Amino acid sequence: MSRRRLDVLGEPHPAYVVWELTLRCDHACTHCGSRAAVARDHELSPAEALAVVPQLAALGAREVVLIGGEAYLHPGFLELVRALAAAGVSPTMTTGGKGITPELARAMAEAGLVRVSVSIDGLAPTHDRMRASRGSFARATAALGHLREAGIRIAANTNLNRLNRDDLEPLYEHLRGQGIGSWQVQLTAPLGRAADRVDMILQPWDLLDLLPRIAALKLRARGDGIVLMPGNNLGYFGPEEGLLRSLHADGDDHFMGCQAGRFVMGIESDGAVKGCPSLQTRAYAGASVRGAELATIWREDPKVGALRSRTLEDLWGLCRECVFAETCMGGCSFTAHSILGRPGNDPYCHFRARTLAMRGLRERLVPVARAPGEPFDNGRFELVLEPLDAPDPGARLSAARRSSARDRVGLPVVREGEPGRGA
Ligand code: SF4
Ligand code: SF4
Fold first, then answer.
1. Where are the extended beta strands (E) located within 97-187?
2. Whether residue 213 sits in one domain with residue 131
3. Ligand 2 site: residues with CB under 6 angstroms?
4. 45 inside domain
5. What are 351-362's pLDDT values in tens digits?
6. Same structural domain for residues 280 and 325?
């Protein structure tokens, strides 16, 4: 979350809520953090879910993003959208789009859904491979059209990894052609099924190539009237920081640290509350709304508030020594935890990768422990410091346009307005 957005939010409260309505899904994606496919045991019934709506409104929730699995597979989906809208909470949705027909899109619009972000992770071959479903790209693209025709604002989101990084620019062209208003790009962290796919996971030095390309796309998108925003785990403090994090051309926003349990809250489909929807269930899922008032859980549950009051003493590794530590607080907590088993040290950082590269070094993630195979679980990696030009066992250097990491550090950076912060 950027500085300006935080300034207007005031005291910590769950302003931005992501609610997993069901773990049932019509996909079984190879990178799914929640390992969605079948419903969890004891998911909230429509009546139980509806009882949470006034509690969210009372806590000051501004937006509730409905997710799954696929939220539309929950029997109370449309009724819940209606209830949120009636309570003054903006209902939005993130979806794979596979089951969104013109009829469902119209029903979603009628219920009051204001914006839907469809997950599209590459051009057709890459997307279908990642989603383990032939025809998925076509269905997701069709969903964007149905939603647009129903009058819902449409957006897209993309998980970036080694399988799809070469699709980035043509994917933008495709999405632009569908009429999206915004595009969120985030990294595939080794969470859930993605933890089983280490071939897919980016190495930290890959950011040296990716961040300037994303910044160039942001400028391009701005010219097209499309808002490209980086996800919270795509960072940090490289020369393009102001451009990437700002909504407007003259903005100088920057990453303001993890907001889990401060302005962000997640609810799992059985009612368990977390400080952020992507946090690991075992370590961070608190009590269920089925057994306690949401306000009490938010205020008092130690797991929900686990990341709320961290200090510099909670950072470690290179993040502890970083000049941006006080502001950044070690990047994205769920991402760091998914790599190293605890937050406060996030190797997916552009500033860090650039600083090391200037010394001829890089960090490599080496898997040392497998994930147990539960929703929102993680394995563990070791960080190996090695020469920047060491062989890359996982490399698929297929793209002619990708220059070497060493060359990339020396290239002029994409800027707009005043110079950004950076290494
Ligand atoms: S864990 Fe990551 S995605 Fe979640 S609130 Fe923190 S920075 Fe944002
Ligand atoms: S090294 Fe760590 S604290 Fe510094 S900017 Fe990167 S993620 Fe943030």
1. 115-119, 153-160, 182-187
2. yes
3. 236-237, 318-319, 322, 324-325, 328, 330-331, 346, 349, 351-352
4. yes
5. 999 999 999 999
6. no
